[in-house]
Amino acid sequence: MAEHHHVISHVSTDPEYAVTPPGAGHEHTDANVWLIAKFGLWLVISAVIIHVGMGFLFGLFVQQREEPEHAFPLAVGQELRLPATPRLQRFPENELYDFRQREEQTLHQYGWIDRQAGRVQIPIEDAMRLTVERGLLPARASQPATTETPGLVPADASSGRTMERRRQ
Fold it and tell me: Measured between alpha carbons, how far is 29 from 58 in angstroms, rounded to an integer?
């Protein structure tokens, strides 16, 4: 009986990979193990160098942190001098409170502005009442009542004095 060997052809883009050479223990297309080992070795060596460098850097930072710092590096050995004026406020909240108290007093009491010129200050409520009573504020002439026209709205820049047509 004749033995039939079925030859199965291997379809490949490169014909050199179609047949494994005789005596090959592995395919010649496998990865290069020595190259991978060299890469791993260099990776470990560089990781050790980086970690040692980071350790020295961290130690340097700790040492700098523990050294005393001078408030004014340029004034070491000199007496403490105040900076030139104007200086920052030491207690701005208190100063603002005091300022507002003085302003409230000024707004709500009588006092002299200029005695020789006869100018006085009066409380703000009295000043507003007198201004209205004497009619010292300029008034705008009253406009006749306009009938509402659909599509007309007050113009933005006119404070309602003029009307403009807008699309609905």
Answer: 47
- Is the pTM higher than 0.70? The answer reads no
Q: Name residues whose C-beta falls within 8 Å of residue 9's C-beta, 6 or more positions apart in sequence.
A: 18
* CA 42, chain centre distance (Å): 42
Distance CA 36, CA 51 (A): 23
Neighbour tally for 73: CB within 10 Å: 7
Select from 132, 111, 136 the least CA-distant residue to 123.
111
In this structure, are residues 101 and 95 in contact, taking their beta carbons and an 8 Å threshold?
no
Give tens-digit pLDDT for 8-20.
Answer: 555 556 666 667 6
Q: What does each C-alpha distance from 157 to 109, 160, 161, 162 come to in angstroms?
A: 38, 8, 9, 9
